[in-house]
């Protein structure tokens, strides 16, 4: 399977995460049928064209943290999640028990 096919599966999984929820890179990989390929999810999101409407900001790491630096895309991600009602804890973590989107198998 070509990487573009993997990316399309990843993008479809990302698109399924609703407003006000988050998923981890690993969650997206599993939902796309690519278990163990969390890093590939990061590569796919990084490859998105500027101006993409895909809700990339809803994808976070397994610790409930943003993986992007605060001085760039990370601040955009934080702002977009906050606008959707996602709350950050004192250490900047998102409560996955509360905000994690559960994909159905």
From TrEMBL:
This is MGMT family protein. One of its GO terms (biological process) is DNA repair. Pfam families: DNA_binding_1 (PF01035). Gene3D superfamilies: Winged helix-like DNA-binding domain superfamily/Winged helix DNA-binding domain. Keywords: DNA damage. It comes from the Bacteria. InterPro entries: ATL_DNA_repair, MethylDNA_cys_MeTrfase_DNA-bd, MethylDNA_cys_MeTrfase_DNAb, WH-like_DNA-bd_sf.
